[in-house]
Each structure stands twice: as C-alpha cells, then as structure tokens.
From TrEMBL:
Domain HTH tetR-type: 21-81
Species in which this protein is naturally found: Pseudorhizobium pelagicum
Protein name: TetR family transcriptional regulator
SUPFAM superfamilies documented for this protein: Homeodomain-like, Tetracyclin repressor-like, C-terminal domain
Gene Ontology molecular function, alphabetical: DNA-binding transcription factor activity; transcription cis-regulatory region binding
Length: 214
C-alpha cells in the first residue's frame, strides 16, 4: 500500500523559466555569479543549469556550451566598462590629459571595488594562464582601451611623458590595492577597509596623476 501511495506522489519539478529571453538571462546570471563565487573549478554545465533552474540542453542551444557562455561574459565585461565608467564628464571639465586620467583612474578604482567577478578575473590574470582567463581578460582590456581612446579625443600627454607606461603602472597599482583589500584588507601596512581609508587612496591617486601630468 505504501509503495502504491509513493508511486502516486508526483515529484515537485524544479522551477523552470519558459520564456527564451528570460531563460537566456537566467543562464547568463547563473554563470556569472557561479564564476565569481566558485571560479573555474565550480564552473560547469550541470552547475550552471542547477543554479539557473533549467535543463542543461538549453545552455547548449542558446550559448553553444561553456565557451559560448564565457564569450557572453566577456562581452558583458566590455559593457561593464561603459556602464560603470560613463563617457560623459560628469560635470568635470576635461581640459587636459591629466583631467582625463584622474577621472578614469578614480572611476576605475570605484568600479573594481564593487564587482567581485572582475576582481577575480584580475587576480586570475596574474596567477593562471588559461585560454578561459585570457579570453575574459582581453575583453576587459580592449574595452578599457576603447573607452580611453573615445574620451581622449584631441587631449595628449605632456611632452616627455611616456603615457602608456605611466598609465600601466597606475592601473596595475589600483588593481593590486583593490585585490589586496578583498584578500587581506591591507597592503604593506596600508589599511584598505573603510571609506576613510579609500578617501586617502583617492587623494594620493589625484596627487600622483597631477604630479606626472600637471
């Protein structure tokens, strides 16, 4: 009798999202959050499907598998630059190359502090050399370079200043500070926990940029 009763009890199906647009969005958000939380070790078709609440075959149908999902995330990282680092001046007059670099550096630092996936990708860049990491890192770098080209317009760095090298060092420093804040809350004894700590960093970044570019 018990066996008959159990047979009559239908299993509760997982929550399914039937609209294609909603399904694609659910898969994408599940993949992005899973990658941010688990890294590539926990990033698999079955894990993404479980989190998205959909059949794994839909991932192949809509994205072509994990590589397609990574391409979509890479494209989103390009949009991340445009969304988090707006191309308008925000009321600030960008009269010089120094104005531009100050704005870009501070906006970039603020954006990184609020995006755990991008922080992880940057950390992976210096610790893992895999096709997946390179794909995501290159997408972010291309977008940032395009943003700078569009914003720069006719602005040029002062003569005698190697702007590409200076900017590379500046952004590498910003990235390392943000990653250190996530990992330990400090760097070389410099606290990176409170907003007061970050205001000091911002002030120092401004002084560095102005000291180099005027």
């Amino acid at each position: 009798m018990l066996a008959v009763q159990e047979a009559l009890v239908e299993p509760v199906p997982e929550r399914r999202v039937k609209n294609r647009v909603q399904t694609e969005a659910a898969i994408f958000q599940a993949a992005r959050s899973l990658l941010a939380e688990e890294g590539f070790q926990g990033f698999g078709i079955n894990a993404v499907a479980r989190r998205a609440g959909c059949d794994k075959q839909l991932i192949y149908r809509y994205y072509g598998g994990l590589d397609g999902l990574l391409d979509a995330i890479g494209a989103d990282l390009g949009d991340w630059v445009k969304e988090r680092i707006p191309e308008d001046s925000g009321g600030m007059f960008l009269l010089t190359y120094g104005d531009l670099m100050e704005r870009l550096a501070l906006l970039y630092m603020e954006a990184l502090r609020h995006d755990p996936l991008v922080c992880k990708i940057i950390a992976w860049e210096v610790s893992k050399d895999t096709p997946q990491v390179r794909r995501l890192a290159e997408a972010r770098s291309r977008s940032l370079a395009k943003w700078l080209d569009r914003m720069r317009g006719s602005l040029t760095a002062p003569k005698g200043v190697d702007a590409p090298t200076v900017n590379g060092i500046l952004f590498a420093a910003i990235q390392h500070l943000v990653i250190s804040a996530v990992a330990t809350g400090e760097f070389a004894g410099l606290p990176l926990r409170s907003e007061k700590d970050w205001l000091k960093i911002e002030t120092s970044v401004r002084r560095l940029v102005r000291g180099i570019y005027g």
